[in-house]
Amino acid sequence: MIPPPSKSPHHLHASKKKKTVRQRIRSVLLILIILLVLLVGAGLLYQALTSAFDASAYPPLGRLVDVGGYRLHIYCTGRGRPTVILDAGNGGSSLD
Question: Quick check: 75 pLDDT over 90?
Fold first, then answer.
């Protein structure tokens, strides 16, 4: 008597092989996702620590003044006229 095709040893072996390939792919994807999450977490931690260090090691020059409910950082030097205002943008400084 011949077993039905779904119960044949060859079919069972192929089915197990497909499952192991799928399991390997899932395992590799899971490892990659975990590594990506760890890398992002390490980057965030590094950025937070170095930003805090830089803020304490290099305080901004000048002072903050209230301008219509907003706080504006100004750095004044010199005396006399004319008054020169340097406005830096894009994260720069007037000292750049």
Answer: no
DSSP state of 95: T
pLDDT of 73 = 83
Neighbours of 11 (CB within 10 A): 13
The continuous run of DSSP H or E covering 63 comes out as strand 63-67
- 74 within 8 A of 63, measured Cβ to Cβ: yes
- pTM above the 0.85 mark? no
60 preceded by cis ω (within 30°)?
no
What does the alpha-carbon distance between residue 95 and residue 88 come to, in Å, rounded to a whole number? 9
Residue 35 lies in a domain: yes
- Would 55 be classed as within a structural domain? yes
Measured CA to CA, the distance from residue 77 to residue 63 in angstroms comes to: 12
Is residue 29 a part of any domain in this protein? yes
